[in-house]
Amino acid sequence: MLVLVEGDMNEWTPADATAVSPDDLLSRVADGDQSAFSDLYDELSGRVLGLVTRLLKDRAQSEEVTQEVFLEVWQQATRFDRARGTASSWILTMAHRRAVDRIRAAQSSHDRDTKVGIRDFETDFDSVSESVEIRIEHERVSRALARLTEFQRQAVQLAYYGGYSHSEMAERLGVPIGTVKTRLRDGMIRLRDEMGVTS
């Protein structure tokens, strides 16, 4: 908008000629001027909040990030370089970066909580359900083994719990390999019947 300067009908000047630009305000902020900082905040906080809110979608978090941005502006004003852009773009870039950092932090926290929840669920499941199943199965096998003859039980235990081969069992028991195989076969058949396993 243009306004006529009083006293000269041919001279026009911009209405905001007396307004101080964000670049100038930021330069004064770099010198520690609190009044300039207040003016800069009034000038740009709405745009910063709008940008951050579009990214975060949460008003309370957006206001918090906006405050963090302007705190950083106050602390880092001396690092602003006019040759690399305007004060507005410098501050909005800072706001964008902080909002993205907040999103990433929230996502990391969510992922971490999810992993912990899954791990805890699996640990509880394993430690309770699986241990109960193992104990029940162990009791069934023990009861079934007790119903075998001494020779059958001895052959099964040496083969499956001791890991002995037929020849090692024959040598250990002092009987022919054929006898070992027969005892083991008969013991396994009876064990399967006792446990109710159908082929």
Indicate the overall shape.
rod-shaped
Main beta sheet, described? 2 strands, antiparallel
Low-confidence stretches: 1-17
Q: Give Rg in angstroms.
A: 41 Å
Terminal CA distance: 95 Å
Helix amount: over 70%
SSE arrangement, N to C: EEHHHHHHH
Quaternary structure classification: single chain
Tell me how many strands there are. 2
Mean pLDDT: 81
β-strand amount: under 5%
Number of helices: 7
Assign the structural class, choosing from mainly alpha, mainly beta, alpha/beta, alpha+beta, or little secondary structure: mainly alpha
> Within the largest sheet, what's the order of strands?
1-2
Would you give an account of this structure?
By secondary structure, the protein is mainly α. 74% of the residues lie in helices and 3% in strands. The chain has a two-stranded antiparallel ribbon. Strand 1 and strand 2 form a beta hairpin. Helix 2 packs across helix 4, helix 4 crosses helix 7 and helix 6 crosses helix 7. The radius of gyration is 41 Å and the shape is rod-shaped. The N terminus is likely disordered.
List the helices and strands and how they pair.
Layout: E1 2-4, E2 12-14, H1 22-30, H2 34-56, H3 59-76, H4 87-146, H5 150-161, H6 166-173, H7 177-194
Antiparallel strand pairs: 1-2
Notable features of this structure?
199 residues; 2 strands; 74% helix
In short:
With 199 residues, the chain is mainly alpha-helical. The chain is 74% helix and 3% strand.
